[in-house]
Amino acid sequence: MACSAKYKEEKLAVFDRAIVGIFFAHISSRQSAEIMNVLIVDDDESFCRLLAEILERKGAEVSWTTDSLEGYEMSRRQPYDLFVFDVRMPLFLGTELAEGLKRDRPGTKIILISAFADDSLRKISQKIGVPLLSKPFTAESLLETVESTLSNPQEHSK
User: Fold this and answer.
1) Phi, psi at residue 80, to the nearest 5°?
2) Residue 44 burial by CB count (10 A; 0-12/13-18/19+): exposed, middle or buried?
3) Alpha-carbon gap, residue 39 to 108, rounded angstroms
4) CA gap 119, 154 in Å, rounded
5) Based on C-alpha coordinates, what's the Rg of the chain?
6) For the segment 101-149, what is each residue's pLDDT rounded down to a tens digit?
7) What are phi and psi of 62, to 5 degrees?
8) What CA–CA distance (Å, rounded) separates 53 from 26?
9) Is pTM beyond 0.70 here?
10) Are 48 and 71 in contact (CB under 8 A)?
11) Domains present along the chain, CATH in parentheses
12) Which of 42, 47, 90, 132 could be cross-linked to 125 through a Cys-Cys bond (beta carbons 3.0 to 4.6 Å apart)?
């Protein structure tokens, strides 16, 4: 069993290095800046901190807020390369934030996240043109969705 566990650990390490390589390749290819700026808006502070830690370990500069109104204002004040919005929040839904940003800035890269990712919400995310991650999700799934969102003009739901 020790060999099996070690084999799995080595495979995960190879996978993690591949994801890091893809992530940094995208960041390096960007002409406007060296560091990717991400805004996370989720009413769960612990979840914001977790997402920020995952993305910061991969070299991103992350801002976050638990207040959807503040998130809206932050999105207007400063340019971000990627937005991660929880769907269900007080004041503004993540879908409302996404629709507004996509309307005002059509090339905006956004990921929606939700613990309530049903067929109806998947259809809404597809209509907006953004991927939907269903909570709970793994760090690897988040990073794959980030890479896919940043590199593909056609986003999709997961």
Assistant:
1) -125, 150
2) middle
3) 12
4) 19
5) 16
6) 999 998 899 999 999 989 999 999 999 999 999 999 999 999 999 999 9
7) -120, 130
8) 19
9) yes
10) no
11) 2-151 (3.40.50.2300)
12) 132
